[in-house]
């Protein structure tokens, strides 16, 4: 008999899960202990964490370097506004519909973009996002190029009173962050996740071992598209106002997100979490400096790329392969009872 | 009996260079076929054509009597064709165990625990178990070659294509490799083995196929083939291995 077994957890990862559960409970109670401005900031952090984790899955694991995910953020915002304003659906009920529609629109987009590879794919995603932006500017019922605001009656229908509404928006942001991180983590732990990491390492060997590369990437692209659309809906539910330039902003929904993932550590579950914290720490301390803030971000990005090309988590993890969210499968010798 | 794998007039050329010239042969279920030929004869290209990583220009490839020519590489693997690469192609960022786990879950379509058991068993048989947690990117060439074999075995193929896995092994390592492949044969897997280490090949195979310039130039009993003038001419330079 084989006296070995496969283990998927370490003492560190178990401890990390307990700490994470603790943080989650504290953060879920934030509406009772945090001020309004802080609550808003936390909500924004969770939404950026979601965007970063999704982009990381797409680029860091599936090798689909998209610079056009703002297409889905904006699409989510616009569809949410349209469903509530034009179809009279309540914002909460609209959210799952928005997500499904995001997944559906990703199908033809993927079929088109997957004809392109590498840098051409990246440019293709950008062009696609521009198509989305220009199309949104043509919709006159949504205010065309100048955009529109969510009517007060719809805003009031979400919850009674401003503080209850803000708490609701916050919980939704927290909920979507948990949903996204959970989905990404469970997906990467599954057989499909292993297949994804394999094809990232070596496409020739991957297809020779039975991995349908096109299908694997397609699934990731569509799931990422659906969840990014949901995050987009929440972003604009919180902003209460939408315009094509804000909804499909390359800077806000792609450049900052790439910054977060790359400085945190691309291709790791932990990287986007660390990157998000660093990004917001920089933003909150430097935002008053105006454009100097963007220069500082650029300097940080250059410094980290020079000193830690695998990001901050890559630096912390070192060569020992520490994982807070264990994806690897370790073979361990069991105590031998045969002898 | 229907051959497990059959090539009918397989054709492939890169410009003026023909790598498969109307190649036809068949492999019986459970049979082990050795492939000989000088460097550049089209042996590895033939594997690429059979596994679907290289599109053929013409002819037929039949697996259990079914034409698999239109199938992409992944489907051919799932249908039962697995290979090892002459130049190892590991998943460098994954451990040895995870490399085999990919083959077991994707190629063999096994579920989690069944896949784990298969991988541990194969790693044990290929003496890779002590290194199961080592990243494949950091392995020596010999370990990479062994991983190629282990990974192909974990796809649970009905036909396994082995591409020069004995090169560079010590006498002792070669013996244990032969034992591993004999063990594989006993499980009923059909084998096509390209190898320059002729004595290793002769210890295992039932039949030999000789290829040059993409063309089949001889096929038959190993003893008869090794005596034939064509093979002697081709192998004059590397006869020292016999």
UniProtKB/TrEMBL annotation, chain A:
Kindly list the places in or outside the cell where this protein is found, as annotated in its UniProt entry.
Cell membrane
Q: Does the keyword Signal apply?
A: no
Q: Which stretches are transmembrane?
A: 12-33, 45-64, 71-89, 95-114, 168-188, 218-236, 256-280, 286-306
Which terms are listed as keywords in the entry? Answer: Cell membrane, Membrane, Transmembrane, Transmembrane helix
Give the membrane topology, semicolon-separated if more than one.
Answer: Multi-pass membrane protein
| InterPro entries per UniProt | ABC_transp_permease, LivM-like
Q: Name one GO cellular component term.
A: plasma membrane
- Which superkingdom, per the lineage? Bacteria
Answer yes or no on keyword Transmembrane: yes
* Gene Ontology molecular function: branched-chain amino acid transmembrane transporter activity
What is the name of the protein in this document? Leucine/isoleucine/valine transporter permease subunit
UniProtKB/TrEMBL annotation, chain B:
SMART domains noted in UniProt: AAA
GO CC, alphabetical: plasma membrane
Q: Which GO terms describe its molecular function?
A: ATP binding; ATP hydrolysis activity; L-isoleucine transmembrane transporter activity; L-phenylalanine transmembrane transporter activity; L-valine transmembrane transporter activity
What name is this protein filed under? Lipopolysaccharide export system ATP-binding protein LptB
- Enzyme Commission number, as recorded: 3.6.3.-
For the biological process aspect of GO, one term held by this record is: L-valine import across plasma membrane
Please state every residue range assigned to the domain named ABC transporter.
Answer: 5-238
Entries under PROSITE patterns matching the protein: ABC_TRANSPORTER_2 (PS50893)
Q: What class of enzyme is it?
A: hydrolase
Recite the UniProt keywords alphabetically. Answer: ATP-binding, Hydrolase, Nucleotide-binding, Transport
The source's domain of life comes to: Bacteria
Instruction: Tell me which PANTHER family the record gives.
Output: AMINO ACID ABC TRANSPORTER ATP-BINDING PROTEIN, CONSERVED COMPONENT OF ABC TRANSPORTER FOR NATURAL AMINO ACIDS-RELATED
